[in-house]
Amino acid sequence: MARHIDLGRRGEGLAADYLTSAGHRVLDRNWRCPRGELDLVTLDRGEVVAVEVKTRTSLALGHPFEAIDRRKLERVYRLGWDWCAAHGMAAARLRVDAVAVITASGRRPVIEHLEGVR
């Protein structure tokens, strides 16, 4: 498997563990539909949360959050509504969160979480 895919999966696992410890319940991981893929879907305080996870090994190419532009954010919202419709939750409240994971070799991962990204 490609190194970047392994890195992404590791980051998604760390993000899921972090969110679970913060009170989220993971509903889905790597959910796919014809329009794309959601990294994580969680439930937090009655809201369905579509979570975009960005993982890097350093800040050399910029902070992971910098990779989430307006177009990507709009796509995550659309996919979140697609997930809700596919799971009979069309009337659910939807929020989009972003999680940055920085996993420098030999160091403890750094995880940052932004709630309600718009």
What does the model show?
The chain has a single domain, classed as Trna Endonuclease, Chain: A, domain 1, CATH 3.40.1350.10. Helices cover 31% and strands 36% of the residues. It is built from 2 helices and 5 strands, in the order αβββαββ. The protein has helices at 3-21, 70-86, and strands at 25-33, 36-44, 47-56, 93-102, 110-114. The chain has a 5-stranded mixed sheet, with helices on both faces. 25% of the residues are buried.
Give the tags.
Trna Endonuclease, Chain: A, domain 1; single chain; five-stranded mixed β-sheet; globular; alpha+beta; 2 helices; 118 residues
> Rg, please?
14 Å
Named CATH topology: Trna Endonuclease, Chain: A, domain 1
Helix/strand-derived category reads alpha+beta
Extract low-pLDDT stretches: none
The portion of residues forming beta strands comes to: 35-45%
**N-to-C terminal Cα separation, in Å?**
33 Å
Please report the total strand number as a whole number.
5
The CATH class: Alpha Beta
Q: Which percent bin holds the helix content? A: 25-40%
The global form is globular
Please give the order of strands in the largest beta sheet. 1-2-3-4-5
Major beta sheet, specifics?
Answer: 5 strands, mixed
Helix tally? 2
Tally of individual domains: 1
For the residues shown, what is the average pLDDT?
95
Task: State the order of secondary-structure elements, H for helix, E for strand.
Answer: HEEEHEE
CATH architecture: 3-Layer(aba) Sandwich
Write the layout of secondary structure elements.
Blueprint: H1 3-21, E1 25-33, E2 36-44, E3 47-56, H2 70-86, E4 93-102, E5 110-114
Parallel strand pairs: 3-4
Antiparallel strand pairs: 1-2, 2-3, 4-5
